[in-house]
Design a protein that fits this description.
Length: 458
């Protein structure tokens, strides 16, 4: 009885020893752990390659037979022959293209992708050739049937590969390798983002320094005598423009005060109809272009028209309108015209002096540079913010935890992946300083690897 129990206990599988392994060693270790299954699938794929090559050869031969096949009944209408020949050529062409693209990989990790692509191409081929195949069945039943069987045999080879890969449990092995790849890719991405952030920080510091130097030069320029003189010219020019605006406002009021009568007068004054309308729609512009002061003649004609009643107005409006017209005197109009001319002359002279100012050009150049630096700085800060957010999304600790759970299930042992300590990486001479993270299939909350990856990794 005891001998039986001893044998029974001895036959139970021993628990495998836990393994601690660095990330650099992990791919090689995993390959050895899974080589029994991967080698078995690789041999199966190589065998399937040979079988597929034989089947492809058979299909090509059968396509040649179909190509040269003669009609059993040559005495059919020409139209029927043309239909037959067109469908035969189309079918042979598509079948040849289909078979040429069938290349079974020997790498087990490429099998799933190949199977998906084959099934898609087969489905596409069958849909594209179903009509041609049915036509050929009417003319070359045996030849087309053999080709159909060849393609079915190819499909069976692929289905057999699919079944064996599925039954081997290789999908879990592929998931395990993918989990290792995700860690390495994430670390590479993290390092890329870190380098980008460092570059952006350097760029921001340089831009800030350039802005400081640029602003300092602008401030120095503002305190110079030349700049003060320029500011005085600008101020004087601005004051003159305000004076001109006041005169333009006066012109507008002067014309608007007689506008109702002027509108009626424009209809009866054939000689000055257009000028009257111009004054109504653009009084300031028309006045400035009225070098002959025709406004005085218009005022005189309007006054006469009201007085002799050729332009009808109510008595109350008539007296008010005549008073307004009297305000448009030769002295007032001439004074306004002269003042506008003098202001424009002075403004032109000041504008030329301002334009010729070297300090003005330099200040404009510095201001333009300031705006560009400001824009570049804003862009760099935005990019740094985006990079920082992207870095926060990379959780290498979680990826390592997921990988260790998968690897533990596959290998049947507890797996601890040793990640580099990010702080040690940044210090010269401490490249070997690593912090071990104990992740197993039972790892859960607050896993040590969350600390091992460093602040920037999270």
């Amino acid at each position: 009885m005891f001998d039986f129990l001893k044998k029974l206990l001895k036959s139970e599988p021993e628990e495998k020893e836990a393994v601690e392994i660095t990330l650099d060693e992990l791919p090689g270790w995993y390959e050895k752990e899974t080589e029994a299954i991967t080698d078995s699938i690789r041999k199966m794929l190589v065998s399937a390659q040979n079988e597929m090559e034989d089947q492809k050869g058979a299909l090509k031969k059968d396509l040649e037979v179909l190509k040269t096949a003669e009609l059993k009944n040559p005495n059919i209408p020409v139209r029927a022959k043309n239909i037959m020949q067109g469908n035969r050529e189309a079918y042979i062409k598509r079948a040849s293209m289909f078979v040429e693209k069938i290349e079974i990989p020997s790498d087990p990790y490429e099998a799933e992708k190949f199977i998906k692509e084959f099934n898609i191409r087969l489905d596409s081929f069958e849909k594209a050739t179903s009509k041609a195949y049915n036509v050929l069945q009417e003319f070359f039943a045996n030849e087309s049937y053999k080709i159909g069987q060849d393609i079915k045999s190819m499909d069976r080879i692929i289905k057999n590969i699919t079944e064996q890969v599925k039954n081997s449990g290789f999908a879990k092995i592929d998931e395990g390798r993918s989990s290792i790849t995700r860690i390495n890719n994430s670390i590479a991405k993290r390092d890329e983002i870190r380098n980008k952030r460092q570059g952006l920080k350097k760029e921001i510091a340089e831009l800030k320094e350039k802005m400081r130097v640029n602003e300092q030069e602008m401030d120095t320029l503002k305190t110079s005598d030349d700049f003060k003189e320029l500011a005085a010219l600008e101020q004087k020019k601005s004051a003159l423009k305000e004076q001109k605006e006041e005169l333009e406002h006066e012109i507008g009021l002067m014309i608007s005060s007689i506008a109702p009568a002027l509108k009626k007068y424009s209809r009866i004054s054939l000689e000055r109809e257009k000028l009257c309308k111009d004054y109504l729609f653009a009084p300031v512009k028309t006045f400035e272009n009225d070098s002959g002061l025709e406004i005085l003649k218009i005022a005189e004609g309007l006054k006469n028209a009201i007085t002799d009643s050729s332009l009808e107005l109510k008595d109350k409006k008539k007296d008010k309108m005549l008073a307004n017209i009297d305000q448009i005197s030769a002295e007032r109009v001439a004074e306004i015209s002269k003042r506008i001319y003098d202001i424009e002359t002075q403004v032109k002279e000041l504008s030329q002096r301002i334009s010729d100012s070297a300090v003005r050009d330099r200040y404009k150049e510095l201001k333009k540079k300031h705006e560009k630096l400001k824009k570049d700085l804003k862009g760099a800060k935005t990019n740094l913010n985006l990079a920082s957010r992207a870095l926060q999304d990379i959780d290498i600790g979680k990826l390592a935890h997921d990988a260790e759970e998968k690897l533990a299930r596959i290998s049947g042992r507890k797996v601890n992946i040793i990640l580099p300590n990010s702080q040690a990486e940044s210090q010269a001479g401490q490249a070997d300083d690593v912090k071990k993270a104990d992740f197993s299939a039972q790892a859960g909350k607050n896993h040590p690897k969350d600390q091992a990856v460093g602040e920037d990794d999270r």
